[in-house]
Amino acid sequence: MKKIIFILMLFSAQTVSATVFVNEVQISPINERFIELYNSGSSDVDLTGWYIQRKTATGSSFGSLVSSTQLNGKIIKANSYFLISRNSYSNSDIVTDITLTESNTIRVRDSKGKDVDQIGWGSIDAGESYQRITAGEWVNALPTPGVANSVSQSANESVATNTTTNTTTTTNTASTQTAPQVTAQAGPQTRVVLAGAPIIFEGKIAGLENNFGRAVQTTWSFGDGASAVGESVSHTYYYPGEYTAVLDVVSGSLTATDKMLVRVVLPNLSLSSGGDNTRSFFTIQNNGADELDISSWQVASGEKIFTFPKNTILGARRSVTFASEVTGLATPVGIIPELRFPNGTSVPIKVEAVSSQAPAPVLKTAEKTKVVASAETRVAPQAPSLQEASALNAISEAPATSVTPRQERGLWPWYVGSAFLGALALAGIRLTKNIEQKTTINADDFEIIEETDDNEPH
Hints:
Elements: H1 2-18, E1 20-26, E2 34-39, E3 45-46, E4 51-55, E5 63-66, H2 68-71, E6 75-76, E7 80-85, E8 94-95, E9 105-109, E10 115-120, E11 129-134, E12 137-141, H3 154-161, E13 183-185, E14 190-194, E15 198-202, E16 204-206, E17 217-221, E18 227-229, E19 232-236, E20 241-251, E21 254-265, E22 269-275, E23 280-286, E24 292-293, E25 298-301, E26 304-307, E27 313-314, E28 319-323, H4 324-327, E29 338-340, E30 350-351, H5 386-396, H6 405-438
Parallel strand pairs: 7-8, 14-21, 22-30
Antiparallel strand pairs: 1-2, 1-11, 2-7, 3-6, 4-5, 4-9, 9-10, 11-12, 13-16, 15-19, 17-18, 17-20, 20-21, 22-23, 23-28, 24-27, 25-26, 25-29
């Protein structure tokens, strides 16, 4: 009885394995390569221990393409797809760096090393995939990774479930899936750029169900007489104005178009610098009324170049200061760096007066200022009178404040004037005392003289 159960289990496992096969392959463009497996059975299949191998047209043996480690723990559900892709799609099961070229052969093996399926192909056009229609019948068509092919999958199911018989009945019925569509996105509705600056235009192409793009050709028309081919292109507008950039996509019989308004303005930037050789900075002022994206722009000072990272934005009528600690550039007073577009050409700017001090307070260790009394404010060794002490106190007891060297140089005339007034007050006090002493009358200063009358007898 146990032997019968074991044999039934083996037969069941082989039947399940036979329901999994390669359903679709795309080899170009490189980033859009994928392998699609399909499980036409009514039970889930555990792919642990399975692996996929590849052989080139000139190769004598198969090499590893998708290892068993990558497939460990993976399950392909009943009547479902399993997508192995180089790019990450919303329905990808494995994302890996797969290598697929023309005239290749791939085979799928289970955990026991037995061949589950094997296919080969010759030439496949870029933007198309190699799709199974029936057993032994394949076509090149628009890719449909992770979903039904252009022809109903019922034919595939019939082929897989009848692999143990010599006769196979297949019926090619029309697909009931939604007709493929292609959409294009040129970017934001309005974009502000600088005249003379190379601008990167990046289109987004979406295909079936807006999950992925399969455009055969994308063409840009920039509205100034120039055009370019490709999803990501560069273009330079040389004169200010408003232009309409149009992205046109053609994929077989499918087309899509999108556009954006491009406002080209003249550069209205100012540049200043400051600091010293130890710590410096430079400031970029956007004097225009539009926000500017200076991503990938460059600043050169000496032999060093700093490149602004992505999404570096200059707000309208705002300035941004860049410290030497970040840029690694030395831009002290007198050194104005060169502002460049991403292609290395110079940006026309207005050079502002340089600043010798940083634009904002810098947190540094506080420095103590020692105040030393000058010679003019020193008190005489002899004890002054009450009036003298009052005059001296008015000068020497004034509250001392901590000042910078520049402030001390600017206040020295006040110090001299104060000392002069103090000396003048002392001289006046002493002079007043001398006068008072001279005007004092003592009894010793008078002499009594007796008068006699000559007529009276002596």
